[in-house]
């Protein structure tokens, strides 16, 4: 990997082998929408282009702020019609907390607590917002 970066060839949406639909600058709007629908279907969320989809991909360790994110999710969902997909592994307490958030909001939140490179690519291509 590239420290604090990404391989722009591997993650190029015009040829990324993990995407449901490849796209370029001229087809980005429709390509992103189709990848969003594919992502929603893959993780079992209601498929709806109109609902904003937020994605988080990362390690579940204190320095990455999962505790802040876990506390914020219920508050966000009270105020906004949004879907959230989280992908990562790390401290078991954070993994358990994310799964409990998913259980509390089954039509809004998916917590995938395992390593899944293809899903990470699909999340980057299909999300409306990336939480970092």
Automatic annotation (TrEMBL):
Species per Swiss-Prot/TrEMBL record: Thinopyrum intermedium
Name recorded for this polypeptide: Granule-bound starch synthase I
């Amino acid at each position: 990997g590239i420290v604090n970066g990404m391989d722009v060839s591997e993650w190029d949406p015009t040829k990324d082998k993990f995407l449901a639909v490849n796209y370029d600058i001229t087809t980005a709007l429709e390509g992103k929408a189709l990848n969003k629908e594919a992502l929603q279907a893959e993780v079992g969320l209601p498929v709806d282009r109109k609902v904003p989809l937020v994605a988080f991909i990362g390690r579940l360790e204190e320095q990455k702020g999962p505790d802040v994110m876990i506390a914020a999710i219920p508050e966000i969902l009270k105020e906004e019609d949004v879907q959230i997909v989280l992908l990562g592994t790390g401290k078991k307490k954070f993994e358990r907390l994310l799964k409990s958030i998913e259980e509390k909001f089954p039509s809004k939140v998916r917590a995938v607590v395992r390593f899944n490179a293809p899903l990470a690519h699909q999340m980057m291509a299909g999300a409306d917002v990336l939480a970092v």
